Amino acid sequence: MKKLPFKLIDLTHELRHEIPTWSGGCGFEHDLKQDYDLMAPYKFRTHKIYMEEGIGTHMDAPAHCFVGGKNIQEISIQDFFAPCVILDISPKIHPQYSLSTQDIKAFEDRFGKIQEGSFVMVYTGWEKFWHEPEKYRNNLMFPNVSSNAAELLLERKIVGLGIDTLSPDRAEEGFPVHQLILGAGRYIVENVANAISMPSVGGYSLALPLKIRNGTESPIRLVGFVNAPEI
User: DSSP string covering 122-136, please?
Assistant: First the structure.
């Protein structure tokens, strides 16, 4: 098999009945519709899926918060593939910690200025609670992103913002980051998985939502691309 020049990293949580959701209720049903008929010449198994748009690793489109904003199917596919930047704040986090402008500037002092067109993922380490939905949800108290940090990232002209929690906003603070990022025509990805496996800089990400007409959110398959190690 031909060797590829990159390695793929899965940054997506699997969808299942028990996954954490914003409301706390079940967001996904995958029911058997037709099972294999062992007596039939052709054997098929099919399922019926019920789900909300914004579950699991998913994307928020500008229309999620803004009348007249772009829906999922209107976002340029060119924006789904982007240089990927990982802001690792996991050593600092607690449920009320917010990514700050100081965190971003410390990152840039080390790795250089975030380049235009980047997809920025905030790694908090909160995904360690993914299989414990009540801890992950934590009454909607989890690490997030400050509005000042979001404004600075928009100055860097990012294409989107991701985080490994339910949201870059906490309910108690309203939704300033949604207003800023989506209001600027960018997208948000929530419930990122495995971001720690990506390099801080130098990788790429591909976020592919379902092409839902008039969709304001969509589950996605988020994949990271990194240079393959030389053999």
Answer: EE-SGGGGTTSHHHH
The fold adopted by the segment(s) 9-14+53-226 is Glucose Oxidase; domain 1 (3.50.30)
Helix axes 147-155, 101-111, angle to 10 degrees: 40
Residue 164 vs residues 18, 119, 137, 144, 195: alpha-carbon distances, Å: 17, 14, 12, 9, 8
pTM beyond 0.90: the answer is: yes
Give the tens place of pLDDT for each residue, 28-54: 999 999 988 888 888 899 999 999 999
How would residue 1 be classed by pLDDT, with cut points 50, 70 and 90? low
CB 225 within 8 Å of CB 204: yes
Angle between helix 147-155 and helix 176-183 axes, rounded to 10 deg: 10
Q: Round to whole Å and give the CA distance between 107 and 217.
A: 30
Give the distance from CA 229 to its chain's centroid. Answer: 26
Can you tell me the distance from the alpha carbon of 113 to that of 201, in angstroms, rounded to the nearest whole number? Answer: 10
From 158, 228, 206, 229, select the one nearest 12 (Cα to Cα).
206
Q: Break the chain into its structural domains and give their ranges.
A: 9-14+53-226
**What would the two tokens of residue 75 be?**
């976002």
When computed from its CA atoms, the radius of gyration of the chain, rounded to whole angstroms, is: 19
